[in-house]
Write a structure and sequence with these properties.
This protein has 292 residues and is an alpha/beta fold. The protein contains twelve helices and seven strands. Strands 3-2-1-4 form a four-stranded parallel β-sheet, with helices on both faces. Strands 5-7-6 form a three-stranded mixed β-sheet, with helices on one face.
Length: 292
């Protein structure tokens, strides 16, 4: 399943109409103390009442500009964020909270659709170069900010595709990979260079990076899995979920149980007809369902 199958689309009766979205934005204006935009309500301090007011007034271009002031990638957060802003919404004390998350991704989705999000190519370059190690959310945000300051930015990613957690850790039902690729392609147009299959310390010398760049930004993710001391953990065929997407060991030609299959299905990498998916090494890996 992907995002469109689990979330209301324009044709769905559960999808917010323009009128309903206007009503929700108006409800926000009744608030005297917007806890939604504090550190407890929004980790990136989105200016929620401001862009809600712009949506209410039909000022969609100004709304995406205001949203981008605090959030590099609202199409990601608008989909995967657990919305603590709604938990902090004052309107929620007496009624349902304002549907802030819905309004956020409505703003950015409309901006993409209307061509309001276009490459912002820096007019001047500083002559400084920066290597960003890791292309997950932190790496992409750091690269975006540094590029807009005029530095020449190169992002190094050890996997075969850019996105880190966005690409390999979040299933399609929460974030479609086309959405990630769309933003990455925009960053490329803005002048950011991406180098994949670059495992720093293995096939890329860290000393070369230091000598070839004026600064390094370390934005690596936590890739060490957390084991679970549960009955059956020692059984054959039980693997950490991320094995499905990266570094499939040579001694695991097929998967005989469950966690890996479930993750493959959620990630959208499972081909239901061929019963196979392709791992990072480009090998077709079969999935056998049965007892371990």
């Amino acid at each position: 399943m992907d995002w469109g199958e689990l979330n209301p689309t324009e044709e769905d009766e559960l999808h917010h109409t323009d009128l309903e979205r206007k009503v929700q934005a108006a409800r926000c204006m009744d608030c005297g103390t917007p806890f939604c935009q504090t550190h407890t309500g929004c980790p990136v301090n989105n200016l929620i009442p401001e862009w809600n007011n712009l949506v209410y007034n039909g000022q969609w271009e100004e709304a995406i500009d205001r949203l981008h002031k605090t959030n590099n990638f609202p199409e990601f957060t608008g989909r995967v964020c657990p919305a603590p802003c709604e938990g902090s919404c004052v309107a929620g004390l007496v009624d349902s909270p304002v549907t802030i998350k819905n309004i956020e991704y409505a703003i950015v989705d409309r901006a993409w659709k209307d061509g309001l999000i276009t490459p912002r190519i820096p007019k001047e370059r500083t002559g400084m170069t920066v290597a960003v190690i890791g292309s997950g959310p932190a790496g992409l945000a750091a690269a975006d900010q540094l590029n807009q300051l005029g530095h020449k930015v190169t992002v190094y990613e050890r996997a075969d595709r850019v996105g880190g957690l966005l690409m390999y850790g979040i299933p399609n039902m929460k974030l479609e990979k086309e959405t990630v690729d769309r933003r990455v392609n925009l960053l490329r147009e803005e002048g950011i260079e991406f180098v994949t299959n670059a495992d720093i310390g293995n096939n890329v010398d860290i000393n070369e990076l230091r000598s070839n760049h004026d600064a390094l930004a370390l934005c690596m993710g936590a890739t060490k899995p957390r084991d679970l001391p549960v009955p059956g953990r020692e059984l054959k065929g039980v693997h950490f979920a991320m094995v499905c997407r990266s570094n499939v060991p040579d001694d695991v030609p097929s998967f005989s149980l469950v966690l890996t299959l479930a993750f493959a299905l959620m990630s959208g990498i499972f081909d239901g007809q061929s019963k196979a998916f392709t791992n990072d090494q480009g090998r077709n890996t079969g999935i056998q369902v049965g007892k371990g």
